[in-house]
Amino acid sequence: MTKPPGLPGFLLSLIVIAITALTCFALIGAVLFAIAHGAQGQAGVRALAGMFDLSRLGALSGARATALFALAAMLYASIIGGVLVVARLWGGANFRDLLAWHGPCPQLRMRYWPWLLAIPLYHLVAGTLLRLLYPEISMNLRLPAEALALSLSFLAIVILAPLAEELFFRGWLYGALRARLSASAAIVACAIIFALAHWDGIGLYPVAVFAPGLVLTILRERTGSAKTTFLAHAIYNFAGWVGLAAISLMRA
Q1: I want to staple 119 with a disulfide (CB 3.0 to 4.6 A). Which of 104, 142, 236, 239 is the partner?
Q2: d(CA 55, CA 76)
């Protein structure tokens, strides 16, 4: 079985993931512009470029929301590509083991379900408290009403974000930590790094995601599979997405 990388190898892998992700991002963008050019020529290219020029768009415009979620989907897809490439280079045919993405999704025993159900409940409570304590952030906690932007938000938030984060944090990162630390130390370290990766400038969001990150990492340790944590993470994000959609509809 292929061993996870040590600290030097892991740090090097971060550089390779970043380079690969940037390359994937550029390739996806090139494909989109090629499609736009093929469909409408230079006019299509200018229209696509204008859509991604966020400086010219209104704060709550449908075009801005479409561009933001399209960029988010492209970014997460690129990260997934970067992690898969690095795992493949390091592990060869056994790369799935390095990401804990082997075999079928483990059967969840009844004792896990309270934790899974607690994650979206925590999201609801934490989001409500943040909106009550900091009303100014409520303007950012909305989803677009336009069909394309709403579909892109679902793709980015519910599918691609959980997949990218679980492959990296509970797959690649946790495997490297667990190979050298005890289960408790690896779980806490992974949850802290996961929270810090969500830094928002004032420290509110990292605090909000630390507890779910801790639960997801415990689930990863107990089931040995990032497939399970991806499912749990997707449920968590879906609950948040539905809540934001409901808030947006009430304000419409």
Answers
A1: 236
A2: 22
